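Researcher: For the annotation table, I need C-alpha cells for LXN protein. Please keep the output clean. Sequence:
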Amino acid sequence: DTDDVGHKYYLELELEDVLDKDRTVSCTAEVLYHLGSKSSAPDVQLTVQGELRSTEEADKEFYTRIRSLEKELVAENIPDSHGNVPPELEPILLLAWAASGYVIWQNSTENTKFNLAQVKHVKQVKRSDEDLQFDYVVLLHEMVSQEVLPWQVTLLWHPQRGARVCQCQGPAPGA
C-alpha cells in the first residue's frame, strides 16, 4: 500500500516466446493501481532480462503477403471451436493478442483478470499509407465474473513501427 496513491505490486515472471516455446526470458514488473480510480490504467514499469527471438523476417514476409492481396483479408472465429488456427492466420491472432493486451491494460482493475478468448471477426482496411489496418472484434474472457465481453479494436501495424491500437470500444454492441 502506498499512502493516498494506491496499491503497488512487484512481480517476477518468465516470458515465453510464442514463436519459440523453448525460449524464455526473465522479467520483473512494478504495477500501481491508483486508489479510487476506475478510469485510469495502472502504471506499469517493466524490465526484461534477455532477448526473445527476432521476428523481423517473419514480419516482413507477412507484411508483403498482406499488402499483395487483391481483396482485403476477412476472417472469423480464430481459433475455431476446436482450438485450431490456420497457419496463414497465426500472425492475425498474434496481432490480436497485442491489441487485446492494450485493451486489458487500459481496462484492468485489481479485481479483474482478462484473457483473449477468440477473434470473433477481423477485417483488413485498405489505407493510402504504408500501415496495415485491421478492425477486430475480439472476445475477452473476464475470469472472475466468467463473462465473455466483445470489444471492437482498430489496430495499425507496420514491421518497423510495430502495433498501435488507435481505437477501442467495448463491449461491442451487437457482436
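Researcher: And a one-line annotation?
Model: Helices lie at 56-67, 90-107.
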